[in-house]
Design goal:
Layout lengths: L5 E5 L2 E5 L1 H18 L4 H4 L1 H12 L3 H29 L1 H18 L5 H29 L4 H30 L2 H6 L2 H17 L6 H5 L9 H30 L4 H28 L5 H20 L5 H12 L1 H11 L4 H19 L1 H13 L3 H21 L6
Antiparallel strand pairs: 1-2
Helix pairs in contact: 1-7, 1-9, 3-7, 4-5, 4-6, 4-16, 4-17, 5-6, 5-9, 6-16, 7-12, 7-15, 11-12, 11-15, 11-16, 11-17, 11-18, 12-14, 12-15, 13-14, 13-18, 15-16, 17-18
Subcellular location: Cell membrane
Protein name: MFS transporter, CP family, cyanate transporter
Pfam families: MFS_1
């Protein structure tokens, strides 16, 4: 039987592919997208429901701060552990295990009181953390000629899931009668992604082998560029998780209703979808690197945050759009991780380091934002803190975007 070979050339890479491999790659791409849809609703769905949760559970502001801080703490700890799990179980099995943990945690956290909510959130976000680190490795090794495109598609799906979590969860609460079924219903999406991932792992040989992606070797802890990428990633994550945890409440205190705040913050995440699909691939190809794109998005974020600080009720829609553009830099942060490493092994190391240490720093974001709000009795001081960090983020992002390798 004659089999037609196809050659694909992109960004200087040549890939010879058969129709069977094309189909297998498409199956894996679908699994990546469905997996990405699960990585934000567990977090973004909490913000619009937080006041209702606290009233029902009788919890304090400290408990709310812990709840909004847990995701980034899990991202740090589980992110650093991801390469070890992948080396022992394999990339495909590790992601499947993470999806099981995510679904179980989503169900667990809605069945009992405050402590169980925290415990379930811990389990769910640990699963998310593992996936965060391992998907860039899958993209680097399974789609080497399409890193910018696949990173953009993955990030767009991730941000789209975040938008759905923020916008749809309040509607689910109204439909099903409370925050518990609203938040727990997202476990269904995790099950669908798990089934897709199992099919992809069986149906394609394109997933990276554990030895390829996570082999033991040189450490990046003394690599200057690796630390620049890590600091940049940590700063943008600090801003993003402080925003996801508290910006809906900032809007509601400015006179926006709960449902409108959820929709507006859903728009913040939704804006990142076209940015990820179009800007990330363009930035990946840019001869001058990704720095100018990172700086541009940072300026938008600075403008939106300034608006929320000085005149939040003047135009919540405009501020949400600008903040959404600023948070879209996440897609470029993931693109930078893949482009600053030459091999899958180095991608795994850089991804684990940037996301592990980066999220460890970012874990302070929601907690410090809430603490400064309580101390200052308002939103001006915590928002001013974010403005200062955005300036530093732009500097490190410009450095991380230069065309160099760890």
């Amino acid at each position: 039987m004659h089999v037609e070979n196809r050659e694909l050339e992109l960004d200087g890479a040549v890939e010879v592919r058969t129709p069977g491999v094309v189909a297998a790659g498409a199956l894996l791409a679908v699994a990546v997208v469905l997996t990405a849809l699960n990585l934000r609703p567990a977090i973004t769905g909490v913000g619009p429901m937080l006041a209702e949760m606290r009233a029902d559970l009788g919890t304090s502001g400290v408990w709310a701060g812990v709840l909004t801080t847990l995701p980034t703490l899990c991202f740090a700890g589980a992110g650093l552990a991801a390469p070890l799990l992948a080396r022992r179980a394999g990339i495909g099995a590790a992601i499947a295990i993470a999806l099981v943990a995510l679904g179980a945690g989503l169900v667990l956290r809605v069945v009992d009181g405050p402590a169980v909510v925290l415990g379930g959130t811990l389990v769910a976000t640990a699963g998310i953390a593992l996936i965060n680190v391992l998907i860039p490795v899958v993209i680097k090794d399974s789609f080497p000629a399409r890193i910018g495109v696949m990173t953009g598609v993955y990030t767009a799906a991730l941000q789209g899931g975040g938008a759905l979590g923020s916008a749809v969860t309040p509607q689910l609460g109204d439909l099903f009668g409370g925050w518990r079924p609203a938040l727990g219903s997202w476990a269904v999406v995790a099950v669908v992604a798990l089934l897709a991932w199992i099919l992809a792992a069986r149906g394609t040989g394109r997933t990276p082998r554990p030895a390829d992606a996570t082999d033991s070797g040189r450490s990046l802890l003394r690599n200057r560029l690796a630390w620049i990428v890590t600091v940049f990633f940590g700063l943008q994550a600090f801003y993003a998780y402080a925003a996801m945890g508290w910006f809906p409440q900032v809007l509601m205190d400015a006179g926006v209703s709960r449902d409108q705040a959820g929709l507006l913050f859903g728009l913040v995440s939704l804006i990142a979808v076209p940015i990820s699909l179009f800007i990330a691939p363009m930035a990946a190809r840019a001869p001058g690197g990704q720095g100018p794109w990172i700086v541009g998005l940072g300026v938008f974020g600075f403008a939106g945050t300034t608006g929320l600080m000085l005149a939040p009720s003047w135009s919540p829609l405009l501020w949400s759009i600008l903040v959404g553009l600023g948070m879209s830099v996440f897609s470029l942060a993931l693109t930078v991780i893949a482009l600053r490493a030459r091999t899958g092994a180095d991608t795994a190391r850089l991804s684990g380091m940037a996301q592990g240490f980066g999220y460890l720093f970012a874990a302070l974001g929601p907690f410090l934002f809430g603490l400064l709000h309580d101390v200052a009795a308002g939103w001006t001081v915590p928002l001013a803190m974010l403005l200062g960090l955005l300036v530093v983020q732009v500097v490190f992002g410009a450095l991380a975007g230069r065309r160099r390798f760890v």
